[in-house]
Design brief:
The strands form 4 sheets. A 6-stranded mixed sheet has the order 1-22-18-17-21-2, with no helix packed on it. Strands 4-11-14-13-12-15 form a 6-stranded antiparallel beta barrel. The relative contact order is 0.20. The chain is of the alpha+beta class and about 425 residues long. The protein has 4 domains: about 35-60 and about 345-415, conserved putative lor/sdh protein from methanococcus maripaludis s2 fold, CATH 2.40.420; about 60-65 and about 265-340, Efflux pump adaptor protein, beta barrel domain (Elongation Factor Tu (Ef-tu), domain 3, Beta Barrel), CATH 2.40.30.170; about 70-105 and about 230-255, OB fold (Dihydrolipoamide Acetyltransferase, E2P); about 110-230, Helix Hairpins, CATH 1.10.287. Helices cover about 35% and strands about 35% of the residues. Helix 2 (about 105-165) runs antiparallel to helix 3.
């Protein structure tokens, strides 16, 4: 008996025909919407440097380069200009205080001394003549007074006799009045003569004081000029080493021109150059250290020079302990200059990655240790060993700190064993 066979709507072939493409489309849609599209690069682990983020004590310091210089330098300048006549020493010589270094000649200065001496001699003569004239005038006035007093005495006696005779009516009124008037005249004349003598004495005394003061000033000026002539012979003001001498025989030097310098070799200090970026953070009293001959030596800033030249300013640093043996003037040392005190911080070792990222992001390893992803970070202070991490990493994270130069714009690195 025949059976009616119902036709199947979804035969296996039909399912395969429509199902496989649909599955493929679904997979593509899921891949586009939810898949990982990060650009990836395979990196061998032996070609990178891995560092672990840690929490530790941090001290910010910067590397600076310093030069060893003497603890004290004395500069030699020309007090007076002149022509170099004699060189007694050469640069590099050891000198004792008072040693002759060079001699200048200045003809105008010698002529000036001769003129001032003549002027002083003339002023001295004027003073002497004024004193002689004052004494002569005093004697003349004294003689006048003696004569006046003598005449007054005579006239006084005559006046007394005239009064007696007039009382007896033996002389006329005219004769009496003439005698009286002569006596009064002589008395007034003596008063005027005394006042003249007084005023003249005051004037002469003031004149002598002025002449003496002028004479003293001229004498002082002459002494200064004479000392300047002595200063034409340059002498060592201290004991030390004549490290430079800028003079040649026959060369003309102006007043105030630098002739050389003497270094006092009692000790040394370090003069370091610091980037102007740190000028507000550098103060006297801050410390630094450097290594010399296998030993670490500590320095302290004694003086800060605020003038900025070519983007840098200078500081003078002195040793807090014994100076290193064998250190010499002009040597260069590399100093770690501290900018703050010790403090707790999250730290990441320095590396070449900073040149590529500017400290904006790093490649941080995933927990499986097989991949590293680009992770944004925020970096604060730094020293020659570590960066301070302010945000984006925590202690225990592992980071690629070597250069990212060959990674381009990759988002994910797949780490492969060599």
């Amino acid at each position: 008996m025949d059976r009616i066979i119902k036709k199947k709507k979804w035969a296996p072939k039909k399912i395969a025909l429509y199902g496989l493409p649909s599955l493929f489309i679904l997979i593509m849609i899921w891949s586009i919407g939810f898949g990982d599209h990060s650009s990836k690069l395979n990196v061998r682990t032996d070609r990178i440097t891995l560092s672990t983020v840690r929490q530790d004590e941090f001290q910010e310091f910067i590397p600076v380069t310093g030069t060893v210089i003497p603890i004290r330098t004395i500069y030699l300048d020309a007090v007076e200009g002149g022509r170099v006549d004699t060189l007694f020493l050469e640069a590099g010589s050891m000198v004792d205080q008072g040693d002759k270094i060079l001699k200048l000649v200045n003809t105008n200065l010698v002529l000036d001394i001769m003129y001032r001496e003549a002027e002083l001699f003339e002023q001295s003569n004027n003073l002497r003549n004024t004193r002689l004239a004052m004494e002569q005038h005093r004697l003349d006035l004294q003689a006048q007074l003696i004569e006046l007093n003598y005449n007054i005495k005579k006239q006084e006696r005559a006046f007394e006799r005239a009064k007696e005779l007039r009382n007896k009516e033996l002389i006329s009124d005219k004769e009496f009045e003439e005698t009286h008037d002569t006596f009064e005249y002589l008395l007034k004349k003596r008063g005027i003569t005394l006042e003249t003598h007084k005023q003249d004495s005051i004037y002469r005394a003031v004149q002598i004081m002025q002449l003496e003061a002028s004479l003293d000033r001229m004498q002082e000026n002459l002494e200064i000029v004479r000392r300047n002539v002595e200063n034409l012979t340059l002498r060592a003001p201290v004991t030390g080493q004549l490290t430079s001498l800028n003079a040649e025989i026959g060369e003309s030097k102006n007043r105030g021109e630098r002739l050389g310098q003497i270094d006092v070799l009692d000790g040394f200090k370090i003069r370091a150059q610091v980037d102007e970026h740190y000028i507000a953070r550098i103060q006297p009293g801050q410390s630094g250290e450097f290594t010399f001959d296998g030993q670490t030596h500590t320095l302290i800033i004694r003086k800060v020079y605020p003038e900025v030249i070519d983007g840098r300013f200078e500081v003078d640093m002195e040793f807090t302990d014994q100076e290193p043996r064998g250190i010499r003037r002009g040597q260069t040392v590399h100093i770690r200059l501290a900018l703050g005190d010790l403090s707790e911080a999250i730290l990441l070792a320095r590396g070449g990655f900073f040149n590529s990222t500017g400290g904006q992001w790093v490649f941080k390893l995933d927990s499986d240790g097989q991949t590293a992803r680009r992770t944004p970070v925020r970096i604060g202070r730094q020293n020659t060993q570590d960066y301070e991490i302010l945000d984006g990493l925590k202690p225990g994270d592992r980071v690629i700190t070597s250069s990212y130069e060959n990674f381009g714009e990759m988002q994910v690195l797949v780490l492969k064993e060599p």
